[in-house]
């Protein structure tokens, strides 16, 4: 599935003069020669000669602590760089609302870190000068990231907005790091498979039979049928895992509504395709037979993990039951074969999983220092520090093999690995900007069971993964109006088809409604963005 980008020479051209000035310039843009540029060391540490204070709007996951500045990795990085960052933490569930209020009101900080800025937001606020252009700053102050842009042309394609500018640093996964791109496999309880005398499911029918057997059997031996065949936060993750069995989603998770029709080689709207109806019918059968957690549409991550620690789930889709539920008896499934014989592992993220993982605003008086601060995490040394921490403190290195210390992997207080890591790191559960490779990333995606899942998935993994498309202002208006109406309607109807409140006899009406809502205009807009993406 992975294709390595051929090295290109990075050439960034501009139609006007190079940006100059600082945050007080009349056009609200910052350039490569701010008033504080002389304070920046060109290479090495510290980044600045005199201390610099920055404030970042920052997304926070449930696994993070309440203050990033107290976490080891950021305390040490502040000492190394002479750059002191205050992270204004906002839970991811309320991130969008607070982010929009900040941007609209103008009272925003120096940068947006792990704030999940969309390409639409980058294009809009970049054009308005809220987010500064990074083209020259990357060229002059981000040698590590510049090398990645040269090595992976798709990275540059995905980052470049319609106006030709780059406004953000991404979260970028090594394209060969398949277990990371899968992220959340479909897990089944191997001990329960053995008790049921069942082989590992290889088809959607065998998976159904396994879930059904879990429901009907007292597998934990407590005299109650309290086992839950499948548990998750909503049904979206399971649908994304299963849709490849119906040949859907052949350009990856970054494009949930559109892929390529294998017959015509033209863009296809997934959610009105007859095969998608078949997938919904399969999901409806699982729901109707009581194979889903009764709280599947309302349960939160924390409650899911707590229930999982009780050993009640036969199957789930999360990063890893071993780290999040202390359950080490699960195996991940590869690509299941569907009823029509199709078998494709399409549950794969784009390597540039978050386009807008980090952006600098025009309030920032130290853009050069900030770019250098961020660029460190796209280097081997910086990424190793960010994910592993300090040698002999958080990890051991023996004969070239790197492992976290026992306090993390076998915590004496009974903490899960992720809970123990939270004392030292903030990457857990986030959309952290930086470069992720298997050599130094030791999260749940690199544990043996996750790597084994990737090996199973590889033979059927999709071959071409699209990065995010960027839309012009006019296209954005279409996607945020009728496009949003269409996707909101689809989300509502998916749940109703699955839970049975809308019968499948209404399918044609559902398709007709989407068409009336402006599907043709939606697809024309998508086609324009795709054409632009293909020719960058």
The spatial strand order of the largest sheet comes to 2-1-3-11-4-14
| Overall pLDDT confidence | 91
How far apart are the termini?
21 Å
Gyration radius, rounded: 24 Å
What is the share of helical residues?
25-40%
DSSP, total strands: 14
Secondary-structure content class: alpha/beta
**Sheet with most strands:** 6 strands, mixed
Beta-strand portion reads 5-15%
**Helix count, per DSSP?**
22
Low-confidence stretches: 1-31
Describe what you observe in this structure.
The N terminus is likely disordered. Helix 19 packs parallel to helix 20. Helix 1 links the parallel strand 1 and strand 2. A 6-stranded mixed β-sheet has the order 2-1-3-11-4-14. Strands 6-9-5-10 form a 4-stranded mixed β-sheet. The protein is built from 22 helices and 14 strands. The two termini are 21 Å apart. It is globular, with a radius of gyration of 24 Å. With 536 residues, the protein is α/β, with parallel strands linked by helices.
Which helices and strands appear, and what pairs or packs with what?
Layout lengths: L51 E9 L11 H10 L1 E9 L3 H11 L5 E7 L1 H9 L7 H7 L1 H9 L1 H7 L9 E5 L4 H5 L3 E4 H6 L8 H13 L11 E4 L4 H7 L15 E3 L6 E3 L4 H15 L12 H9 L3 E5 L3 H4 L5 E3 L19 E9 L6 H9 L4 H9 L6 E4 L2 E4 L1 H4 L7 H5 L12 E3 L11 H10 L15 H8 L1 H18 L7 H10 L2 H17 L1
Parallel strand pairs: 1-2, 1-3, 4-14, 6-9
Antiparallel strand pairs: 3-11, 4-11, 5-9, 5-10, 7-8, 12-13
């Amino acid at each position: 599935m992975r294709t390595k980008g051929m090295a290109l020479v990075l050439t960034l051209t501009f139609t006007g003069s190079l940006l100059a000035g600082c945050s007080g310039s009349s056009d609200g843009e910052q350039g490569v020669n701010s008033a504080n540029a002389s304070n920046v060391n060109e290479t090495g540490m510290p980044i600045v000669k005199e201390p610099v204070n920055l404030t970042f709007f920052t997304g926070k996951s449930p696994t993070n602590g309440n203050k990033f500045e107290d976490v080891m990795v950021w305390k040490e990085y502040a000492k190394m760089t002479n750059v002191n960052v205050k992270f204004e933490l906002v839970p991811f569930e309320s991130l969008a609302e607070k982010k929009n209020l900040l941007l609209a009101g103008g009272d925003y900080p120096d940068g947006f870190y792990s704030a999940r800025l969309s390409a639409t937001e980058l294009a809009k606020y970049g054009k308005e000068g809220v987010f500064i252009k990074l083209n020259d700053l990357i060229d002059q102050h981000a040698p590590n990231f510049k090398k990645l842009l040269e090595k992976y042309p798709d990275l540059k394609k995905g980052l470049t907005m319609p106006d030709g500018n780059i406004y953000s640093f991404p979260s970028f996964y090594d394209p060969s790091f398949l277990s990371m791109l899968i992220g959340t496999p479909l897990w089944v309880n191997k001990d329960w498979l053995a008790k049921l005398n069942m082989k590992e499911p290889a088809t959607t029918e065998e998976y159904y039979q396994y879930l059904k057997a879990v429901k009907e059997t007292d597998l934990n031996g407590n005299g109650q049928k309290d086992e839950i065949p499948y548990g998750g936060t909503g049904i979206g993750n399971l649908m994304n895992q299963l849709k490849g069995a119906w040949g859907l989603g052949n350009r990856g998770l970054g494009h949930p509504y559109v892929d390529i029709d294998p017959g015509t080689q033209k863009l296809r709207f997934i959610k009105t395709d007859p095969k998608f109806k078949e997938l919904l019918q399969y999901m409806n059968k699982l729901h109707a037979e009581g194979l889903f957690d009764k709280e599947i549409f309302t349960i939160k991550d924390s409650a899911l993990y707590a229930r999982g620690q009780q050993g009640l789930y036969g199957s789930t889709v999360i990063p890893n039951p071993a780290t999040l539920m202390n359950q080490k008896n699960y195996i991940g499934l590869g690509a299941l074969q569907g009823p029509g014989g199709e078998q494709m592992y399409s549950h794969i993220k784009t390597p540039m999983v978050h386009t807008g993982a980090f952006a600098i605003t025009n309030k920032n008086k130290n853009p050069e220092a900030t770019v250098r601060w961020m660029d460190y995490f796209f280097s081997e040394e910086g990424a190793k520090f960010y994910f592993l921490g300090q040698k002999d403190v958080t990890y051991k290195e023996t004969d070239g093999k790197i492992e976290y210390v026992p306090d993390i992997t076998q915590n004496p207080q009974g903490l899960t690995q992720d809970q123990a890591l939270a004392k030292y790191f903030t990457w857990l559960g986030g959309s952290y900007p930086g470069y992720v490779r298997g050599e130094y990333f030791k999260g749940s995606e690199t544990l043996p069971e996750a790597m084994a899942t990737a090996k199973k998935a590889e033979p059927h993994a999709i071959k071409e993964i699209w990065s995010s498309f960027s839309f012009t202002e006019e296209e954005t208006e279409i996607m945020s109006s009728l496009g949003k109406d269409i996707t909101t309607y689809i989300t509502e109807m998916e749940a109703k088809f699955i839970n049975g409140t809308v019968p499948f006899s209404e399918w044609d009406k559902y398709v007709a409604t989407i068409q009336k809502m402006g599907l043709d205009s939606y697809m024309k807009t998508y086609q324009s963005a795709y054409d632009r993406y293909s020719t960058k």
